[in-house]
Amino acid sequence: MVFESLVVNVLNQFLGPYIKNLDASQLKIGIWNGDALLERLEIKENAFSQFNLPIRVKGGFLDRLRLQIPWKSKFTDPVIAEVEGLYLIAGPLTGTTYDSKKETAEAREKKQNQLKKIEEAKKREKEKSKESDDGFVAKLVTQIIKNIQVTVKSIHIRYEDNVTMSGHNFAAGVTLDGLVVQSTDSQWRIGVNKEEGSMVYKIVQLKSLTVYWDTDTQLVGDLPTSEWLKYLKDRISPTDKSSTTNYILRPLTADAKATLTTKPGKDPNIPQADVSISVGEVAVHMDKLQFQGVMTLAESLDRMTVNTRYRKYKPPVEMKHQYKLWWQYAIVSVLEEHVKRKTEMWSPSHIRQHWRLFKQYVEKYKEKLLTSKPSADLLAQLQQLEDQLDIGNIVVARNEAEIKASKVEKKRAETSSGWFGWFTSSVVEEEKDVIPSEKDMEAERDSLYKAIGYAKGEALQSFSKEYVAHRINFSLHKVTVELYNGKDRAAMAQVSKVQAGVAHRPSAKGISVSATVGDVSVTGIDGNDQPLIVESTCSAVVQCL
């Protein structure tokens, strides 16, 4: 029950900000049964606000999300996570009409998400102050990596814009055909590793990752849902060579192999984590219009971010022949958001009002902390106060309320004794939701310790100064960068046979980095007689200790 509840809470926190009308009860039932399957999930319109981007989702769906957890053998059998069919079209925030109710609701949701992150950070800080079991964490992470298997298929995220570049529509997007993380045996054969021992083998395969930028192209975001979905699906991994998609990053494929040991340091020649990454060819192509579009979009996003706070004053008409309304928009924006805000902030009436709201929030939040089941009326009052206070004041008020609540609880603990104290505490327990008992939690903890080979109080093993605990090797067959002016190639750079390595010795606090490059060449204008600008005559080797 302990792990089931933990997984449900983590998934709710991860999916909640992005999925519209997420059915938490359905997710909970699925997780507890060991097989949670969610289909046809709709992406929230304000999903990008979590990243503070002035981008609005025009339409988005996640076809399938599945999580299989074998609870009876959760420490030995694989945990399977599958994500399939993420299709999303977004556009600039300025291209949408301002809706007061919707914007207020989204601002409230964003504030609540920020407050949740702050509360989680406070919990982590409290845990850091306690004695940490680094050995337990290291072995738990290794066990999680050993068991988990991930499959991601068919991802297409597209951004369409007819505002940023005057006279030029453009669409930019990222597509991914597949990403697979699987367990293997020592011979890198895919499947559950049945071999006994302390070694864990994982393989990661990336298939057809692309980035494209189409200028003066068809914008499909306003088409019926079935049509734009088909459009996005057909362009994930097109096999038709006549495709009009203009790739900045052409289909990229990569593989990674990881070897981990649950008993680091036992063999001085085996690192705790040894990762090898192999990338085929990285082909980058960019023309003049694409480059201009990327730079213009970056500037536009900055302007839209600044302009977000003034959207409610913006007139719903174009500037042409409506200059008076737009001058009023500029004047009102400055007056309301800058002049009046500063003058009112330090007025005696505003200070008294703010202090009254602050004290009310402290008392209401303290009441919430001291109540096992806060009433709907109390939660509504807290929400109303949070709408009027900024995040900084809310955090300070909560800290003050927590101090006051802890004093009240300490006083209650000192005064409650005998049968009356036992009676009141039992009543409170009956009112709370079903929470795992200490005995159940201890049993779960013992089974986890046994599964990952951890003894309570075991410290993180110290290594010799010569022991390499982490090693990463990277190989890249070739990188090609082509720059075009229209249909004419202006320049091309190629780098081939790139090798790099990183080795970490934690006890010596040392890192070794090495890199080798095979051939390097830069050529100029395309034609029968291409000018050679740069060419390597021998391999270059760089090593830093």
List the helices and strands and how they pair.
Blueprint: H1 2-15, H2 24-33, E1 35-42, E2 55-68, E3 79-92, H3 100-129, H4 134-147, E4 148-161, E5 170-183, E6 199-215, H5 225-234, E7 247-261, E8 273-287, H6 288-307, H7 323-345, H8 348-369, H9 376-388, H10 391-415, H11 418-431, H12 438-452, E9 470-485, E10 488-505, E11 510-517, E12 519-523, E13 532-535, E14 540-544
Parallel strand pairs: 3-4, 8-9
Antiparallel strand pairs: 1-2, 2-3, 4-5, 5-6, 6-7, 7-8, 9-10, 10-11, 10-12, 11-14, 12-13
Helix pairs in contact: 1-2, 8-9, 8-10
Q: For the residues shown, what is the average pLDDT?
A: 81
Share of helix, binned: 25-40%
What integer value in Å does the Rg equal? 29 Å
Low-pLDDT windows of residues: 422-434, 539-545
Q: What structural class should be given to the helix and strand makeup?
A: alpha+beta
Structurally, the number of domains stands at 3
Describe the structure.
The chain is of the alpha+beta class and 545 residues long. The chain folds into three domains: 2-99 and 143-260 and 290-314, no CATH class; 339-432; 470-544, no CATH class. Helix content is 39%, strand content 31%. The chain has twelve helices and 14 strands. It has helices at residues 2-15, 24-33, 100-129, 134-147, 225-234, 288-307, 323-345, 348-369, 376-388, 391-415, 418-431, 438-452; strands at 35-42, 55-68, 79-92, 148-161, 170-183, 199-215, 247-261, 273-287, 470-485, 488-505, 510-517, 519-523, 532-535, 540-544. Strand 12 (519-523) and strand 13 form a beta hairpin. The two termini are 49 Å apart.
